[in-house]
Amino acid sequence: MSSDGRKPRIAVFKFASCDGCQLSLLDAEDELLAVAGAVEIAWFPEASRRMAKGPYDIALVEGSITTHHDAEAIQRIRRQAKTLVTIGACATAGGIQALRNWHDTAEWVRYVYAKPDFISTLKTSTPVAEHVPVDFELRGCPINKHQLIELISAMLAGRKPNIPTYSLCLECKRRGNTCVMVACGTPCLGPATQAGCGAICPSMQRGCYGCFGPMESANGPSLASQFRLLGCTREQVERAFRSYNGWAWPFRKVFEEAPKP
Amino acid sequence: MTPTESGPAVKPGINKIEVPVLARVEGEGELHIKTKGGRILDLKVSIPEPPRLFESFLRGRHFMEAPDITARICGICPIAYQMSAVHALERALGVSVPPSIRSLRRLFYCGEWIESHVLHIFFLHLPDFLGCQDAFEVAAKNAEAVRMALRLKKLGNEIVRVLGGREIHPVSACVGGFYRVPRKEELEALAPELEWALQASLEAVTLTASLEFPDFEQDYEFVALSHPGEYAMNEGRIVSNRGLDIDAAEFEEHIVEQHVKHSNALHSVMRERGSYMVGPLARFNLNYGQLTEQARRAAEQARLEPPVRNPFKSIVVRAVETVFACEEALRIIAAYEPPPVPRVEVKPREASGAAATEAPRGLLYHRYSVDADGLITGARIVPPTAQNLRRMEEDLWNYVPALLELDNEQIAWRAEQAIRNYDPCISCATHFLKVRRE
Predict the structure, then answer these.
(1) What topology is assigned to A9-157 in CATH?
(2) Per-residue pLDDT tens for B129-184?
């Protein structure tokens, strides 16, 4: 990546999230030491006390933007990062906490906290791409650690990462699963969801719940009408589409008109 | 906090020790210590982790979604959230599961305990004891120990993956049982590596027991689940060394959450008694007699006798619990017979119920109310780190004065080490919260 022979500098940042996506790097037990040897881990507080200032060659960003402070911080991070990659559903689509975007956040804060005045939060949880340009989005709640290693390797080698954008159904078929929707009538978001997890839910005889977010050109409305044919109520369909990636437009548009330009 | 922010100006005569980004903890934390003339004026572990408001958006969701949704509170201990959620909802809905499901849940938890404990011992805590900034520096000195740790951690993850499909936010656990249970051969395939892991975790006990520990003991109230027949993970009463002995349904009568301005997660305190400690030290001290044989022998060899009151020794206790989890996993696998059905049917009804289970870092309490359609109408979640926060600060108030001869960087580092004794999971503690900064 760097032409001057120095090791590329990697930084890992966190906003509103569960830590699981950055943990995926530490969960890559077979590759971790090799990755640590190939790069300079310049900013990764979850793993190291050593914290070096930017600029960084690669910034991996976990979490959604939910506070004024974080909305400013992501601007600074973008200025310091040559390549900015969002890791996971929170950073890429706003995460499960984006459910607030359809509700009264002030009431929600009052429900959780005795002293809501102490709490400073935005009314919305938004993906990083609504704030700054993003160079690559790694999907999943959580991301797949093999995809993360593939992405880092590709960036170090200066090639395009091999990360498919087709639907979960392809992975599911390749595993030899019987289709849970066709055979059992179980609502499954697989046909509209991007592959990457290995079709683990249908392999457990349950429907996909869409944690990798919409596939390229997903047809949410069509899948929603199929759910209705299977006997789901409108509320059930809404809950199915509004979860970990609910704020991603291809899932939102099942229930919403396109925003006016 | 990002690298370009700078701290506030310092008043004359006042020494400010600032750790703007707490490293090697899960989530975002800060430490502020103010001293003057060899005395602590102020000390705060504050938490800028943004609020996510889980308890609010759980309302209106179906109860079958609760284990998957609450797992997202914490990527480090998702199984803890899934287990507390399924138990609370099963208690609410009057469901009991067959013994083989119960055992599988225990095995699931063993996987998480191994993964989480090994991560904390070797990657988050050990570097402090060796004067290293991170595990990569430790690896430069002792590559074998770090490789052993990675292999152990991988095994913990593998148990979770076999049962749940993936390591983080696994997808198999549900109210009533599992969506799919493994075949016996799938579990038996884990046994050889578990045999190795048992030996490796015994080495981890020896290694951690040989570290140097600050001479620091505190008189804690230890709180953990306790079960008559086993080292408690999923079921039991909530007990303490000061006479607490309650069902999870009584938790909120005895434990109150205080919303403190400076610290950005709610602090839990025992009504009329104050702070308390949950986690490995509490479990070890309260349930020592129920540890498996090799775990107890390892503890004896490490000269750990309950009650262990030195929080720095929690690193050894985690290693002992890792030995326990390996032995327990082997026992469960050997005895496993798949249940007749992976899950029992659960019918919704208007009800509420509470349960607590033992997350790697301590007691995790969930309470839910559901309506006749199975939609959640109320939820309360009290994570272990919120319960430990008050106690963590008290440790610092008592520990830092002895350090004041040192320079600020050393004071900060030692104080951080004392915080890491608790393996704090700030993402959990703050699954809701952000308090305004000073």
Answers:
(1) Rossmann fold (3.40.50)
(2) 999 999 999 999 999 999 999 999 999 999 999 999 999 999 999 999 999 999 99
Judge whether B237 and B224 are in contact, CB under 8 Å.
Answer: no
Q: What are the tokens at B342?
A: 């992976």
B-contacting residues in A 25-54 (Cβ below 8 Å): 26-27, 29-30, 32-33, 36, 41, 43, 45-54
d(CA B269, CA B279): 15
Closest CB to A141: pick one of B26, B72, B264. Answer: B72
Judge whether A102 and A155 are in contact, CB under 8 Å: no
DSSP structure string for B413-428:
HHHHHHHHTT--BHHH
CATH code 3.90.226.10 for B54-388: no
Q: For residue B268, which amino acid is it?
A: S
A210 phi and psi angles, rounded to 5 deg:
75, 30
Phi/psi for A148 (5° steps) reads -65, -45
Q: What three-state secondary structure class fits B239?
A: strand
Cα separations in angstroms, A158 against A42, A58, A155: 20, 12, 5
Paired sense of beta strands B15-19 and A136-138, if any: unpaired
- What are the beta bridge partners of residue B364? B357
d(CA B275, CA B135): 32
Closest CA to B186 of B212, B162, B216: B162
pTM over 0.80, yes/no:
yes
- The 10s digit of each residue's pLDDT in A23-81 is 999 999 999 999 999 999 999 999 999 999 999 999 999 999 999 999 999 999 999 99
Distance from CA of B119 to the nearest CA of A (A): 8
Contacts of A66 in chain B (CB under 8 A): 50-52
Tokens read off for A41:
């881990």
CA distance A144 to chain B (A): 9
Domain ranges for chain B: 54-388
Question: In chain A, where are the structural domains located?
Answer: 9-157, 168-252
Q: Tell me how far CA of residue B130 lies from CA of A219, B22, B319, in angstroms.
A: 55, 18, 17
Whether residue B47 contacts residue B265, with contact meaning beta carbons closer than 8 Å, is answered with yes
Q: How far is CA B404 from CA B258, B397, B416, B420, in A?
A: 30, 12, 14, 20
Q: Would you say the ipTM is above 0.90?
A: yes
Inter-chain CB pairs, A–B, below 8 Å:
216
CB spacing of B165 vs A204 below 8 angstroms: yes
Nearest-by-CA chain B residue for A77: B2
